[in-house]
Amino acid sequence: MDIRERNKTRDGIPAQAAQVTNAGRTATAVLEANGTGESYASKPEELARILEARRGERHCIVLQSFPDPDAISSALAHKLIASRFDIECDIGYDGIVSHHENIALIELLDIDLTRICERDELKQYSGSVFVDNQGTTSGLTDRLTEAKVPVVAIVDHHELQNILQAEFTDIRDASATATIYAQYLQALAPLEYGNSEHTRLATALMHGIRSETLGLSRAQPADYLATGYLAEFVDQTTLDSILSVERSRKSMDVIKSALEMREMRENYSVSGVGYVRYEDRDAIPQAADFLLTEENVHTAIVYGIVRKPGEREMIIGSLRTRKPTLNPDAFIKEALGANEKGRFYGGGRREAGGFEIPVGFLAGTFDDEFMRRKWKLYDAQIKRRLWTKIGVHEATEIADAEVEE
Ligand SMILES: [Mn+2]
Known about the structure:
2 domains, 16 helices, alpha/beta, Diaminopimelate Epimerase, Chain A, domain 1, six-stranded mixed beta sheet, 44% helix, six-stranded parallel beta sheet, binds manganese (II) ion
């Protein structure tokens, strides 16, 4: 069944009520009830069977192009589980690790990520594993398919994307992929106290779950079970250092522009921040998080043109919402549509979504006037689509007038 269909049923019950109903049940029952009523209790066993059949192989764990703590920690957990089956894994990505918290996570926990570039041979892998994504947000997906590397597993909590078929699939409505992996670990590779590798993994997963739940304030029963399990293995000092890393000056500038440029209608706060350096791309979701903290705002959308030197130019945007009836995946797909190949410009999960629209023919840096007009044009078009979806119409004309000035 489509995960969105299942969400609808669940969303019929207010989140609070659902949590109260879950109280007092056994751990497994809560895990099952937390999502959809479908049982996930047998998933670790199923994963073990698949990995057993691939003993001795080498796999590539694929992260989204811009890995976040949830993805990084989940990949680390997958790597540990796979090692129990003599499967060696590289954790691969093709973009950039830019958010300061992510860099701190990798540095402080000594995590080995492999940046895979154009010339790297992918045929060396006997299988690929997608964690915290389903192939839509990585440039490696098409390359692995071309190299005929079979998809061994997909473990994710985003809406079902249906672009890859895997031997093992666990896509559920969880807060974090790290929450799912904490469950797998308990069943397949229980953490041991005093093992430094396990301490690093538990710390990373704790950070992954915290970052997906706004520091646990949005946590669900399954997240408390996961963090409850991880807690005794976590290195609190390291976790504190990761969390206290300051935002870069450039990120602060993007957040400032988002605040200045925001337009508010019907409790939606929409802000186009103009050109953003590739390294500062993660400031866009941070700015959306920030705009969501304003009173009377239930949904914030921030976007900008991101330029990767010498390469593609994209409109990159983030949506954050507190509105229980707003499905970010459907909202973005319906508002912005798909390209000529039918691939949607974006999607999402509960409370968050993102989009990437190639600038294409207009890409490139020219004089200031050209750059200013280009931004105005894209800004106007995105606002037109968003306001139309939201149901505000007069704003479209304002945007048109600005472009024609
Ligand atoms: Mn995630």
